[in-house]
Specification:
Blueprint (H helix, E strand, L loop, with lengths): L9 H6 L7 E6 L2 E5 L5 E8 L6 E9 L4 H16 L4 H16 L3 H12 L5 H19 L9 H13 L3 H20 L31 H10 L4 H13 L3 H5 L6 E3 L5 E5 L10 E4 L1
Length: about 290
């Protein structure tokens, strides 16, 4: 017949005295109290690891800071994890590691993680523009603030001076980028929700202003003035190259001979690699 374990009581635990060596008193269900030579009393959960099937000890805390009632509650929770095939000791270590990560997850650190993903989706020039805007307008005030402490009001206070200078497009872009960072923090379970999701409504909207254009009839006059303008030869040729290929300034200025592919009939294509295109897709321009 299996021997039953008599549970501990608050009085019994309080009256336990140290001996000439450590000893253990069991409360049952794996809960143990180790009494040390120095008089300290330590709660311990002893269980069989769900995978290795080896005996494992998991410290729960010291008495009297950890009461008998609380130790029993923690034991029951740990026993449930074991029953589900989870190692409670490892689960606790992972939870503590996640907590430490969360506490040290400043806006800058989270932004750096987000940026590693973001920069693979955009051109190098655009990636530089993203990071430069955060460095200039955000990190100097909020970079070392944990994302868990970022609020709508703190971001509004930081961006309000930028709005007052009239740089409304800058405010709009920074808000978009900050929202992506905070959404990333939600995905990483650093915060439960994005507190700045709606802050764009707190700022003036930039007015759409279309860039000036010229008609086909005005093009000859434009080219004549371009030839007479005091700009470098290379700049003039890049502008003409843009007119012929209808590409963006960065794409035109970054053109390389290695991107020109000659065809059998003497014609050629300019093949711009995906990493230099805004949409990250290879683009072919017939020449």
């Amino acid at each position: 017949m299996a021997r039953s374990t008599i549970g501990l009581t608050d009085t019994a635990v309080r009256q336990l005295k140290p001996k000439d060596k450590d000893y253990v008193k069991s409360d049952g269900k794996g809960l143990q109290l180790r009494v040390r030579v120095n008089g300290s009393k330590l709660w311990n959960f002893n269980y069989i690891h769900p995978t290795t099937k080896k005996r494992v000890n998991m410290g729960l805390g010291s008495y009297p800071d950890m009461s008998l009632k609380k130790a029993r509650e923690l034991t029951e929770a740990a026993r449930s994890q074991v029953a589900e095939g989870v190692d409670p000791k490892l689960a606790r270590e992972e939870e503590r590691a996640a907590q430490r990560y969360s506490e040290n997850a400043t806006l800058r650190k989270v932004a750096e993680e987000w940026f590693e993903v973001k920069k693979s989706e955009v051109t190098a020039d655009y990636a530089d523009d993203i990071w430069r805007s955060l460095e200039l307008h955000v990190f100097n005030r909020l970079g070392e603030t944990p994302v868990s402490q970022i609020s709508a009001q703190t971001v509004i206070d930081v961006l309000r001076p930028v709005e007052k200078t009239g740089r409304l497009e800058t405010v709009k872009r920074v808000i978009q980028r900050l929202n992506e960072i905070m959404n990333y923090a939600v995905i990483k379970k650093l915060i439960t929700g994005n507190p700045i999701a709606a802050i764009k409504s707190a700022f003036k909207k930039p007015k759409k202003q279309h860039l000036p254009t010229i008609t086909a009839k005005e093009l000859p006059d434009f080219l004549r003035k371009l030839h007479e303008t005091n700009v470098t030869y290379i700049t003039r040729q890049v502008i003409k190259w843009q007119l012929l290929t209808m590409t963006r300034p960065s794409e035109a200025a970054g053109a390389k001979w290695s991107e020109i592919q000659w065809l059998d009939d003497g014609q050629a294509n300019w093949v711009i690699p995906a990493e230099r295109m805004k949409k990250r897709r290879q683009h072919t321009v017939p020449l």
